[in-house]
Design goal:
GO terms for molecular function: 6-phosphogluconolactonase activity. This protein is mostly beta strands. The protein has no helices and 31 strands. 0% of the residues lie in helices and 56% in strands.
Length: 400
């Protein structure tokens, strides 16, 4: 199966090293940003990254929400905020100058907020989480010039949940399990984690769901595999948007499906009280398989934090990035750091392949901020660079 939000980030002894970011925004644009790290006399300058927008493309309009890069093809899902009866999935060929050439597109049900590439080399496919239409749609991408819909799975729930946004199913993510055998979907509306098996033709069959506490609103999850303690153990970590919980489960494989045993539970801020109106967003596993990073929106936990704009010394209120270390033997988590996100609503995050740089898309601040991380402690150490990007930002990913 095929999935990768992180790309290899090569170390360099030249006078600079460069890569790119792709950023999506509700203004309809995908913006390509060139990221250059300067060196002085062969010594890395730890203070500055130059971020420069070099290209824009409107081909995923009206409301690009999620990006995925596979080889030299960039896939983009449109949420369809202004087209209530439909959304689109688009692919682009990427070029070294940052430009994008449209390859194929397909019209889907409304509300694409997340997707994953899965299947085999002979039957590659994409599964879309369609928050707005309570569906999961699968699409064959075998022909790179013409995509075809395989299935549109209408999701059901027995009764409305306790919160207004839980009146119907709301799939918010699709992800492949760590054995590459199942696709899971946290359903914010139904308070379940849905489980699907896939056949050799990339068709999905829904299995028994895993329930989470009522009113939780599960949003995003990440798989973790440990081989350090008496064999291989797999865990799933889930953040909930409404109740702001961080939940950890041991994953047990019972052919032909799987089950979860809860091994960890806390608020997203650990033992610290969750700020009023906070809304957990993203969860990432670091490339070294040692830490989880969670982003929290609308908490303004840091009232006087450093402004990421180098031209503005005014202190700002900031939401929060939270780092946890993982115990590989029992799946428990330990909070190691809370760090200001550089602004408002850190909706999306992406780690480079080395794990030393974390890019954050601040939805309401309309800014991308890159942070340096210390690989040993797992903690963020400083703002490395930032740039303003128009509109409400929805996703950011690294190119190689």
């Amino acid at each position: 199966m095929l999935i990768s939000k992180s790309i290899l980030y090569a170390m360099s002894i030249a006078t600079c090293r460069a890569t790119k970011l792709y950023v999506s925004s509700y203004d309809g644009n995908i913006t390509t940003i060139n990221v250059t790290e300067r060196h002085a006399f062969g010594i890395q300058n730890q203070n500055k990254l130059d971020l420069n927008p070099i290209a824009r493309n409107i081909g995923c309009a009206p409301s690009p929400s999620w990006l995925h890069l596979f080889n030299d093809t960039l896939f983009c899902a449109d949420e369809g905020n202004t087209t209530p009866n439909k959304s689109i999935l688009v692919s682009f060929k990427t070029f070294p100058d940052g430009s994008l050439l449209p390859l194929a597109n397909v019209t889907t049900p409304n509300g694409n907020v997340n997707f994953v590439i899965y299947g085999t080399e002979t039957a590659p496919a994409i599964a879309l989480a369609e928050y707005g239409s309570s569906t999961i749609t699968t699409i064959s991408i075998k022909d790179p010039t013409a995509y075809t819909i395989l299935q549109t799975l209408k999701l059901n729930q027995t009764a409305p949940g306790p919160n207004p946004q839980q009146s119907v199913p709301r799939p918010h993510q699709v992800l492949i399990d760590s054995s590459d055998s199942f696709i899971l979907s946290p359903d914010l509306g139904a308070d379940v984690i849905r489980i699907f098996s896939s056949d050799s033709y990339a068709h999905l069959t829904e299995q028994k769901s895993i329930s989470v506490p009522p009113g939780s609103g599960p949003r995003h999850a990440a798989f973790y595999t440990s081989e350090d303690c008496d064999g291989q153990t797999r865990y799933l970590y889930l953040v909930t948007e409404i109740s702001n919980m961080l939940l950890g489960y041991e994953v047990v494989y019972n052919n032909p499906t799987l089950s979860f045993n809860k091994v960890y539970e806390s608020g997203t801020f650990g033992s610290v009280a969750t700020p009023l109106n906070a809304a957990a967003s993203e969860i990432l596993l670091t490339p070294d398989n040692k830490f989880l990073i969670v982003s929290s929106r609308n908490d303004t936990h840091f009232l006087n934090s450093t402004n990421p704009d180098p031209a503005n010394n005014t202190l700002i209120a900031s939401d929060t990035l939270i780092t946890y270390s993982i115990n590989p033997c029992n799946g428990s988590l330990t909070l190691t750091q809370m760090y200001p996100a550089g602004g408002s609503f850190p909706r999306s995050m992406s780690l480079n392949g080395g794990g030393d740089l974390l890019a954050v898309a601040l939805q309401q601040s309309s800014r991308v901020v890159i942070f340096r991380r210390d690989l040993k402690s797992g903690n963020i150490t400083e703002i490395a660079g930032s740039v303003a990007v128009s509109g409400e930002l929805t996703d950011v990913i690294w190119d190689g």
